[in-house]
Structures are given as structure tokens and as C-alpha cells.
Amino acid sequence: MKCTVMTNYPKTQSMVAELIAEGTIPGASYAFIEPQEIRIYREGHAAIFPEEEPILENELYDLASVTKVMMTATLILQLWEAGSLDIEDSVTKYLPEFSQPQVTIRHLLTHTSALNGYIENRDSLSSEELSEAFMHLTVGENFGKEVLYTDTSMILLGFIIEKITNQTVTTVFEERISRPLELKETLFKPTNPLQCAPTENHPVRGMIRGEVHDPKALVLYPHCGSAGLFSSLQDVIRFSQMMLNGGSWKGVQILKEATVEQLMHDWTPTGDLNRSLGWAFLGSADGAVPNRYLLHTGFTGTIIILDLVKKRSFVFLSNRVHVQMDTPYYLKRRNILMETYIAESEVLDKLV
Fold first, then answer.
1. Closest CA to 208 of 302, 117, 325
2. CA distances from 201 to 54, 92, 300, 322, 323 (A)
3. What angle do CA 321, 168, 89 make, to 5 degrees?
4. pLDDT digits (tens, 9 = 90+) for 242-286
């Protein structure tokens, strides 16, 4: 892995520095993946409360919803390749107790199911009770017509993976993705909390460190497909390289090249809602840059952007919920960060 202090993304780096200086994030580990090199940076702190801590080389971050693409969506694509499921299948084919037979795997992957994910007294339910509640959700009026991003879709897909494989979704991930890719720093239960960037200073749980931030993932483990993974920058880079390389890494085929190519299509029922199979599409805010970039983010402050055409990626890991959580402001600034990266990437294309 080649590292250098030189950069072709000065505006993106400057934006990261601004986020740290203004206190939006305590720090970040991030990388620019280029066809011929990888440029790695660690800036700011892993923790600022109760005292400042530097970012470790192998710092682990709570990936939050980036789990959806690194684990669940990729496993669903593997099962699709193997003929174990079809994306047009009804969810009830695998989960007969599910109350909405019109909802298909495609709807779940593209977040177009219109499922109402509200569950009364959710945080007081046991894993079994919460799992049962997901079987009785209702569908809203915009079924198949708009994207409503929720954790519900990937949680249900995780249940489907478990029904097909007769294993927990976490075990399937370890066997079919983590172990083949040698993701030795990607796990669900870190053994050393001090290697983990802390997240929220929770009023009930205290400083959350080495334990998943997401409350549903905390209860549902090891059956949650929406969140729960901890990982290092190096491992997320490796996953991203696999995707950029047509589904393979050092001769290990995680996905078929044709499957990865299929991700460049809009898979929503209407074909124009900018969602692929598990991934979102991203372009420039002004529409000048086409939606060719695959994107996924996590609530805790994590981002993967993949350009499958130019074989580039931006991997950004932070713990922005430590120790303040102004989500509306962060989302506004995060969007500017992503747009800045895309703009600089497009400039590079013109220089080649």
C-alpha cells in the first residue's frame, strides 16, 4: 500500500480540517483510492472527552449503516448469483410470517417498500420481541414510488439471509466476506474498547466505546443486517478495492464482475429514484456530474464513495457523534464534503 503526503484533493482535505476545527467531528481516518496508489490520512483526535486521544493506526470505528453494504447487500448479491434467491421474490417466500406479500427483495434493497418502521416501545423489547414486531409492519401509500431510507429493509434482508443459510447473518459475513478478504480488523464485538473510537456520551449507557451505538443492532445482535460492524480504515479500503476491481481481491472472488457492473443501474421500480441494489447514487449538486458514483454513509460519521468507472474511492471514517450530535448541521456539512470530493475527482479526469 503506497502512502504519500502529496495530494490531488486539497479542497477535500481542507474541508476535513474545517470539520475538525469547528468541532463537527473530533477527527477522521480517511483515504483516497486511485488506480495506481492509495493515499491515507489521519487527522484530529480519536477522542476529546474526558481527555484527548490520538488516532491509532489501527483505530476501529463503528461503521453504523455502512454495515448495510459491506455485509448485508453484498451477501444478498452473492445469494442472487448462486440462484438461492431472486430479487423479484416476495419477502414472504422466505419469511412466511411477514404481513406484506407485495414487498419484494428489490423493494428492500432499494428502500422503496414504504414500510412504516415505527415500533412502539422499541427500546424496551427483547431480541425475540423486536424480531417479531418486524413481521407485522404496515406499508404506506407511496409503495414502490419513492425512496424512504430506513434500517427496516436491511434488517429484514438479514433475516432472509439467515433463513436461506441457516446461520446467523454475522457468521455468514465472517465466512463469505470477512475471512476471504482477510478483514482481520472488522468485527462485531471488539475485544479492546480502547482501540475503538468512542461514540456518544449516552445519558443511560454512558460513554459508548467498543459497543455498537445503534440501539436496534445492540438488541438484535447477532441477527442485525443494518448496523453493528466495527472496522479499521485499512479493512474498509480493502473492501472498496474489491468493489473497484470487479468483485475480486488478490484472486479471491467475492462478487462476479457482472454483478458489480449491474450496480451501475437504477434498480428502483420506477427506474428513476437514484438507488442501486443496497447503494445510493451520487452526482454533483448542480447536476453537471452524472449519478455514476455509488455511495453509502453511516450515522456515526462514515462514508464510502465508489467510482466504478474511474476506479476511484473516497473512504471516510469518523465518530462525529462524539461528543456532540448536531445531526442537521453535520448532514449539511457532510454533503458539502462529498460534493467537494466529486468536484475534485472530476477535475482529475480532465487532467488525464
1. 325
2. 18, 40, 13, 7, 6
3. 95
4. 999 999 999 999 999 999 999 999 999 999 999 999 999 998 777
DSSP-based three-state secondary structure for 10: helix
pTM equals: 0.96
Strand partners, 293: 282
Cα angle value 32/214/134 (rounded, 5°): 120
Residue 44: DSSP 8-state: E
Do the strands 201-202 and 248-249 form a parallel or antiparallel pair, or are they unpaired?
unpaired
CA dihedral of residues 55, 171, 77, 337 (deg, nearest 10): -10
- 70 closest CA partner among 258, 240, 217: 240
Per-residue pLDDT tens digits for 195-248: 999 999 999 999 999 999 999 999 999 999 999 999 999 999 999 999 999 999
pLDDT in tens, 52-68: 999 999 999 999 999 99
**CA count, 13 A, side-chain hemisphere, 242:** 26
Cis ω before 50 (30° cut-off from 0): yes
Q: Is 67 helix (H, G, I), strand (E, B) or coil?
A: helix
